[in-house]
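Archive entry: two folds, one per protein. Generate the first.
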Amino acid sequence: MRIARHRIVTVLRERGQPFRAEWVERELPERVDPAKHVGLLATLRLDPADLADAPSP
């Protein structure tokens, strides 16, 4: 399971956290591995299950 970085950025901007969103855009890859970045996602209070891409049919 991978998470598109733009989904994380969108959620952070919707929460009114533009500086965190900008940092994520600069520092994280286009496709984020939640297992590798579990600590960061927890710090940002993001649930990977809510952000995961929908499975392809």
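Generate the second and append.
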Amino acid sequence: MSEASLLAGPALRRLRKREGLTQAAMSARLGISASYLNLIERNKRPVSARVVVQLVDQFDLDPRRLTADEAIGGLDGLARRLADERFADLGIDREEAAEFLAAAPQAAAAFAQLFDKAGDAGARQSDPLAASSREIDRWRNHFADLDHAAEELSDELRLSRADMGAALTERLRERHQLAIRVLPREVMPETLRRLDLHARQVQLAEMLSPASRNFQLALQLAYLEQGDAITQLAAGSQFEEEAGRRLFERHLAGYFAAAILMPYSRFMRACDATGYDLPVLECRFNVSAEQLAHRLTTLQRVGQRGLPFFMARIDRAGQFSKRIAGASGSPLLGSDASCPLWNVHEAFERPDRWIAQVVRLEGDGETARDWFTLSHAVDASGGGGKFSVVLGLEARLAEPLAQARGVALRPEQAQPIGLGCERCRRPDCRQRSLPPRGAQLAFDTISRAATPFEFGHRVG
């Protein structure tokens, strides 16, 4: 896939004004025409790699300042904040958010900071799970150094044994003097894996599936061989609480483990060759549906990018226990509750297949994107619970997918959904169980509407 264009007009305009230069003077220093610089400043043209090099050379500019809006999650982050129910009566759509960000990125960043420190959002700032998720999103769930290290280790393991489980077992035995022991359920009723250094054993629960056993062995290798790298990565992030940092470290260890089982280049070749055929990929790499979904959100290696998937894990009550946006920029993960019109719940009734649906987030404006989503029921590790794992990407990118064959991807076929009833202002939804938060309810004694609640603008 081609690299995304870098539109950084406001950043260049601020730099030029700070230096006290006219467009003619700055364009001369950059080796481009004044008219081309004018187009760049108005976001009509992207900043080329050659111009970035000249900016670094002529103005000692940190290239990261060209994408300062990424600190707030870019357009998707700003649009998510503006979609808050407190602004529902203003009808701000995605186009307006894009204009705000393009015209005044520093003002947009100031708004985002104030928003994050106010009300419920402020409370979430101290939530360690939310803090870890924000850091994962900041990296877009791609950690290049870990990926390369895992790929090298995976290639080394394949040279020793064709079977990954046997190769992992051999690595732990030869390199770390650790034996593998599978213990009965009554001995490890609530534990999946335990490192017993006294007995020099990695102990596994017998209820783990073969795919989960391999993952747990790879996870143990991650802690043993990449512990320092993982600690350093987490130390470079700013967490207010130790719990947030530890959750992030746990994610990084799982990332490395998945990258051992699905090494980047070989996995990408398989994705391209099969049209991202999910059941085929599960079998080829001997991984679970959830492990596969995680891996598909990470494919952002420069020069070898995959499709930009997001993934989520949802329980029967519609609560999200995992949300990874990857490079998708999807707004569908911006709520703690799912929409009953989204067929993620249907997966519980049809656990043997991936279930496809095209959805559109209601109230996302004229530039709303349609999303192709796939849902699959999975068991909790070791049994004892069920979740629905959801994969998704923009519908316009879904045509090459094996699971998209026969699915209508046209905009008029998309199912409108919301971010849970309390945040959705769609007036004609018969599935609604709660009115929108802050809405002015309307009551009519003459007639009774087919929808459960009638409402107008927000209170106050």
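Annotation attached to the second fold: The first helix runs from residue 9 to 19. The two ends are 48 Å apart (CA to CA).
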